[in-house]
Amino acid sequence: MSEQPSPSSKFQPEPPPGDALEVRLRHEANRLSWNQGAAAYTAELQETIDFLRSGKSSLHPIERRNLGDLREWCRSAIHLQCASGRDTLSLWIEGVERVVGVDISDVHIANARQASQALGAPAEWYRCDVLDTPHELDGSFDLVYTGRGALCWLHDLGAWGRVVRRLLKPGGKFHVLDDHPASWMFDQESETLQPSGVPYFGYWESSRGWPDSYLGDLGLPAEQHLTKYEHLWTLAEIHQALTGAGLAVELLGEYPDEYWDSFPRLKPELHGAFPMTFAMMGRRPA
Ligand SMILES: C[S@@+](CC[C@H](N)C(=O)[O-])C[C@H]1O[C@@H](n2cnc3c(N)ncnc32)[C@H](O)[C@@H]1O
Question: Using a 6 Å cutoff on CB, does residue 104 contact ligand 1?
Fold first, then answer.
């Protein structure tokens, strides 16, 4: 999710050297920080299991519209940055026979395993950096699915695009639904549209703690919140990461719809005045 700088954030107008070690260090910091954040998902795990057991799916209406009836074309799907597996298992509920989830957080993957065992769902889980998704999975999937608050945690999007490509079968589709990068430019705590000070280009930030309208403080004292790193990827950069990897982008959608309460104080009449989310979908050429 596109958290805005908290008081403990460091504003970084210039991207740091994008070398591989720096990328790995930030991803590792995010693993530790997400192990803290995942506690909020653990607290809701039984609710998630009950939700899925009742046959409900958490796919977003935009995803459902773009993906159509999964039963008709999708036998296997991999969910990159799957968190505790709710959306991954929703793909299974929606009729995908083989679902695989990948996430860097130990706590998230432990939650996901617990949920799939409780449901008797034949899901496979990998705890790893998305950039290290095992090669044994290459070429296996009809769908590579990435959703809601994922891309900002990655610090090498070109490498991510190449992972998406290698996982897909020829002709397989990818789908991304995420925060619209333009939404980062508005202050999330304002009632009106106020600039956040975040520049659209070349922005990354480090911060500690989570917005109350998202995960809250998790009951941890502020000094125990670990540092996490986020990157604002522009629509062009996301498009380039996918096309540069040899994928064809066939749909780009921009939507006023939210998927989390990211602007909790914004006047209702201003919802819809700017794009909150985008979707990108396409395929690996056959
Ligand atoms: C906002 S959550 C995704 C939430 C999910 N879309 C949902 O609706 O439940 C972002 C996820 O990305 C994962 N993540 C962050 N960096 C990652 C990386 N480098 N590789 C794999 N997973 C990563 C985090 O552990 C977290 O589960």
Answer: yes
Tokens of 16: 């740091």
Cα 14 to middle of ligand 1, angstroms: 24
- Å from CA of 83 to ligand 1 middle: 5
Per-residue pLDDT of the chain (286 residues; tens, 9 = 90+): 444 444 344 444 344 555 889 999 999 999 999 999 999 999 999 999 999 999 999 999 999 999 999 999 999 999 999 999 999 999 999 999 999 999 999 999 999 999 999 999 999 999 999 999 999 999 999 999 999 999 999 999 999 999 999 999 999 999 999 999 999 999 999 999 999 999 999 999 999 988 777 787 677 888 888 999 999 999 999 999 999 999 999 999 999 988 888 899 999 999 989 999 999 999 999 9
> Which mutation among 25, 33, 81, 137 tests ligand 1's pocket best, with the greatest number of atoms within 8 A of CB?
81
Q: Which of 34, 88, 127, 157 is the best mutation target for the ligand 1 pocket, counting ligand atoms within 8 Å of the beta carbon and taking the most?
A: 34
In CATH terms, the superfamily for domain 11-283 is Vaccinia Virus protein VP39 (3.40.50.150)
Alpha-carbon distance of 162 to 149, in angstroms, equals 20
Q: Distance between CA 204 and CA 201 in Å, rounded?
A: 9
Distance spanning both ends of the chain, measured CA to CA: 33
- Asked whether 86 and 116 are in contact (CB, 8 A), the reply is no
CA distance 135 to 166: 8
Q: What distance in Å separates the CA atoms of residue 202 and residue 12, rounded to the nearest whole number?
A: 9
* Residue pair 49/115 in contact by the 8 Å Cβ criterion: yes
Taking CA atoms only, the protein residue closest to ligand 1 atom 13 is 81
